[in-house]
Amino acid sequence: MPELVFFSGTMDCGKSTLALQIEHNRSARGLAGVIFTRNDRAGEGKLSSRLGLVTEAVEVEDGKDLYAHLVEHLSQGGRADYVIADEAQFLAPEQIDQLARVVDDLGLDVFAFGITTDFRSKLFPGSQRLVELADRIEVLQVEALCWCGARATHNARTIDGEMVVEGAQVVVGDVNQSAGEVGYEVLCRRHHRRRMTAATARAAALSPDVLPVSPS
Ligand SMILES: Nc1ncnc2c1ncn2[C@@H]1O[C@H](COP(=O)(O)OP(=O)(O)O)[C@@H](O)[C@H]1O
Ligand SMILES: Cc1cn([C@H]2C[C@H](O)[C@@H](COP(=O)(O)O)O2)c(=O)[nH]c1=O
To answer: N or C, which end of the chain has less CB nearby within 10 Å?
Structure first.
């Protein structure tokens, strides 16, 4: 039975790498995939991994009908044995419904990859719809780690290493950004709640202990 599978995890846990591996293994066996993405850091129409691999993809614009794209592709003699959608958190809920229709009406497997929650730990609308519709949700096996060593489950947005909690939901960016740039850091829930990033934890550890005031 074809399935809609949602591979979810924090930033930097290997989602795009897995997407590229699924694409590689299937195309190596003569299968043809249609790859969608939106706002990949490598640029428009790219699916890229931090391991350095990149492949061409169809950039999903606002209002694009993904089901209609597949029907058009097939009716023009194109092949499609499966579908990959990376950065799926950026898709609109209607586009996730269209992916579910691709599974049900065209009989294709759809593999969607994305982060579930944003920097305020709120669901992205596209990810919410995936949680509602997916046949299966897979949490990636390679754990990203918080600076404390615990499994990272949350994404923090940072400026100069400090966590920020205000701003637009979508700001394309990366982990390990240099000073002055908006960046991201993955944290465990405890440290996300306390807004404690690696930089603020380091600063706290370096600050001199406050000495008790001796009675005069
Ligand atoms: N220099 C490196 N050596 C080995 N593995 C790396 C290196 N850089 C990144 N990685 C791996 O790549 C993962 C990020 O892969 P990527 O597919 O780009 O993540 P995602 O799409 O989930 O944000 C990291 O969690 C790490 O496992
Ligand atoms: C938490 C969060 C992330 N983003 C952006 C930052 C990146 O461009 C992508 C995630 O890509 P990855 O391949 O999973 O690392 O999402 C955002 O726009 N808003 C957020 O709150």
So the answer is: C
CA dihedral 14, 79, 93, 131 (to 10 degrees): -50
pLDDT at 211: 56
Residue in 76, 43, 77, 78 with CA at minimum distance from that of residue 57:
43
Q: Which residue owns the Cα nearest ligand 1 atom 15?
A: 14
Non-local CB neighbours of 168 within 8 Å, separated by 6+ positions: none
Q: Which amino acids are annotated catalytic?
A: 87
- Please report, for residues 73, 87, 102, 141, the alpha-carbon distance to residue 124 in angstroms, rounded to integers and kept in the order given: 28, 11, 22, 22
Q: Which atom of ligand 1 is closest in space to residue 19's alpha carbon?
A: 17
Asked if residue 15 has its Cβ within 6 Å of ligand 1, the reply is yes
pLDDT in tens, 139-187: 998 889 999 999 999 999 999 999 999 999 999 999 988 888 899 999 9
